[in-house]
């Protein structure tokens, strides 16, 4: 196991919920998490009552970014493999995966996306 990628983003997407975890690979523990299953986030997204959409996924990314900042991990490199996440979640969930990744990027998280297909510099 390469410890160069210490913090890794893991996504769990179901028909009803979206959960994003940042895992510390050294200890094997979840460092920070955000989910639409949490009452405050779920109450804020009234349109996500029956199904979870890209807007809800972006909200999960925003909450995760804020929690990473509070924990002091926003500057630490957090790695995500976009192609692997899309392949695991299926093509239908591609917009949700990218909504989370883009929300993390736009809120200042040091996100390193592998195999994302675009050649922009990721800061």
From TrEMBL:
PANTHER family from the UniProt entry: 39S RIBOSOMAL PROTEIN L18, MITOCHONDRIAL (PTHR12899), OS09G0549700 PROTEIN (PTHR12899:SF21)
SUPFAM superfamilies, A to Z: Translational machinery components
Molecular function as annotated in GO: 5S rRNA binding; structural constituent of ribosome
Listed InterPro entries: Ribosomal_uL18_bac/plant/anim
Name recorded for this polypeptide: Ribosomal protein L18
Keyword Ribosomal protein: yes
Domain of life: Eukaryota
Organism per entry: Digitaria exilis
Key words of the record: Ribonucleoprotein, Ribosomal protein
Keyword Membrane found: no
GO biological process: translation
The family this protein is said to belong to: Belongs to the universal ribosomal protein uL18 family.
One GO cellular component term: ribosome
